[in-house]
Amino acid sequence: MAIHIALYEPDIPQNAGTMLRMAACLGLPVHIIEPVGFGLSDRDFKRAGMDYLAHVDLKRHDSFAHFNAWRMGQGLRLTLLSTKASIPYTQHQFQHSEILMVGRESAGVPEAVHAAVDARVLIPMHGQMRSLNVAISLAMVAGEALRQNSVS
Fold first, then answer.
1. Which element (helix H / strand E) includes 55?
2. Left, alpha or beta for 119 (phi > 0: left; psi -120 to 50: alpha)?
């Protein structure tokens, strides 16, 4: 099994392109959960992903329900990165069969998705800061998941 990443209804093409580029470089499969707030031929998406996009193991899912049914059939644990979580990502025990999911930049994920995940983790913030850029957050958590599983 491998650590996967999932983008829930991404709506900023530059962030999605950056996350796919990271996934290509780290060999992480990517799942895009529709609908997407931009075309995958979008200029900003392609600019952020550069020529790495051709190297991404990418699966698209029509809805969260279809994605969730697929991942459960594969025996993959779903961990959501969320500012509403209470467990810091450094205290979470990541597994080889894990999907790290980020929500929409503009709205996160709905309560029904929160209820469907197996775990939720957060990145502790300094002072009154609310959140990091979603691509930076995913990179931090993916790095920790790979470190814990001795995957390079």
1. none
2. beta
